[in-house]
Amino acid sequence: MAFVDGPVRVRVPATSANLGPGFDALGLALGLHDELTAAVVSDGLRIEVAGEGSGQVALDESHLVIGCMRRTFTLLGTQPAGLALTCENRIPHSRGLGSSAAAIVAGVLLARALVVDGAARLPDADVLALASEIEGHPDNVAPCLLGGLTVAWIAGAAKAIRRDVDPAVTPVALVPSFTASTELARGLLPESVPHRDAAFTAGRAALLVAALTGTPEALFDATQDRLHQPYREPAMPASVRLVEQLRSVGLPAVVSGAGPTVLVLARDADEIARARAIAPQGWTARELPVDCRGATLLAT
Ligand SMILES: Nc1ncnc2c1ncn2[C@@H]1O[C@H](COP(=O)(O)OP(=O)(O)O)[C@@H](O)[C@H]1O
Ligand SMILES: [Mg+2]
Q1: Quick one: CA dihedral 210, 212, 213, 215, positive or negative?
Q2: What's the sign of the alpha-carbon dihedral 215, 218, 223, 224?
Q3: Whether 34 contacts 12, CB under 8 Å
Q4: Of the ligands numbered here, which is closest to the C-alpha atom of 139?
Q5: Buried b (16+ CB within 10 A) or exposed e, 2-15
Q6: Ligand 1 center to residue 188 CA distance, Å?
Q7: Is the CB of 34 under 6 A from ligand 1?
Q8: N or C: which end of the chain has fewer CB within 10 A?
Q9: CB distance 52 to ligand 1 below 6 Å
Q10: Region 226-246: what's the mean pLDDT?
């Protein structure tokens, strides 16, 4: 199996999953990106990390991107003699902005691009399935790969549909300095919920797809959730309180993924300014336009 000459480079967006009622299904790609470069070398493993996660993530075979590259190479029937990887990270880790999905998608795409006929042997649909399997769920992986708004589901393998987002919608992420564990947040969900809450949330999830793709005036009602956010309050009381505060003044706010970041789906400059003004001390308000493209290979 032949490898390409020279390095390959990929750009992967941050993502926000759930968006309120779209639990484990809806996701939005955001204009905040990691850029990674990888090359096949004669031996060893060289990893350089700048930005988010620098000094924290392991610089050996247990590095998430490397693990995903190895798994993809094995699937393609080859392993390079040596690997060099450079990560320029801008997506903060463990904040509910999809850093793990971005790392996984980047690893799979870099390895595929390093193998001469990789793209033919691992088509995009298989990349989605593989990356979702590694992450454990497709709700961040799908928008990271495809951009825009995605509806993801699992039927055997992970699948997803992409839609453009109404241009009036500008996501504003309110990002705290502290982190939250996705695993802990998942552990707080009950085995069963009242039928009326399930029915309510299913209706709101359907409304949310319509609202985000052409009826943004319905976004406040469309972001109401009764399936996960109320149950997760003990894991992130400040985030749930902030969502309530933003919603009490009419802003469509949700917990981003498993938190603790809060996302406001602002519809005009006034809503962006009001969301910024409500950000508590120690939280950073970041206007992150929707990323329409998803993961892209860059020229090196
Ligand atoms: N770019 C990266 N390089 C290496 N490891 C990463 C990267 N991004 C995320 N990770 C790993 O994933 C963990 C965060 O994943 P997770 O808890 O799912 O939070 P998030 O909401 O940011 O995806 C980090 O602590 C780190 O171990
Ligand atoms: Mg994650």
Answers
A1: positive
A2: negative
A3: yes
A4: 2
A5: ebeeebbbbbbbbb
A6: 20
A7: yes
A8: C
A9: no
A10: 95
Contact 164, 149 (CB under 8 A): yes
Closest ligand (CA of 14): 1
Q: What is the pLDDT of residue 300?
A: 85
pLDDT tens column, 103-150: 999 999 999 999 999 999 999 999 999 999 999 999 999 999 999 999
At the top level of CATH, the class of 170-287 is: alpha beta
Pocket test for ligand 1, best of 99, 104, 134, 261 (most atoms within 8 A of CB): 99
Which residue type, as a one-letter code, is found at position 191?
Answer: E
- Tally the residues of the chain: 300
What pLDDT sits at residue 187? 86
pLDDT in tens, 173-229: 999 999 987 777 778 999 999 999 999 999 999 999 999 999 999 999 999 999 999
Q: Does ligand 1 come within 6 angstroms of the Cβ of 139?
A: no
- Tokens 């706010």 locate to 253
* Residue of the CA atom closest to atom 15 of ligand 1: 100
Is residue 100 within 6 Å of ligand 1 at its C-beta?
yes
Which of 94, 137, 255 has most ligand 1 atoms within 8 Å of its beta carbon, as the pocket-test mutant? 94
pLDDT reported for residue 1: 66
Indicate the CATH number for domain 8-163+291-298.
3.30.230.10
What's the rounded Cα separation, in Å, for the pair 289 and 116? 34
Per-residue pLDDT, 186: 78
Enter the tokens of residue 6: 């020279």
The full set of domain ranges for the chain reads 8-163+291-298, 170-287
The pLDDT tens digits of the residues spanning 246-289 come to 999 999 999 999 999 999 999 999 999 999 999 999 999 999 99
| Mean pLDDT score across all residues of the chain | 96
C-alpha 288 – ligand 1 centre gap (Å)? 19
User: What's the farthest any 2 CA atoms get from each other in the chain?
Assistant: 61
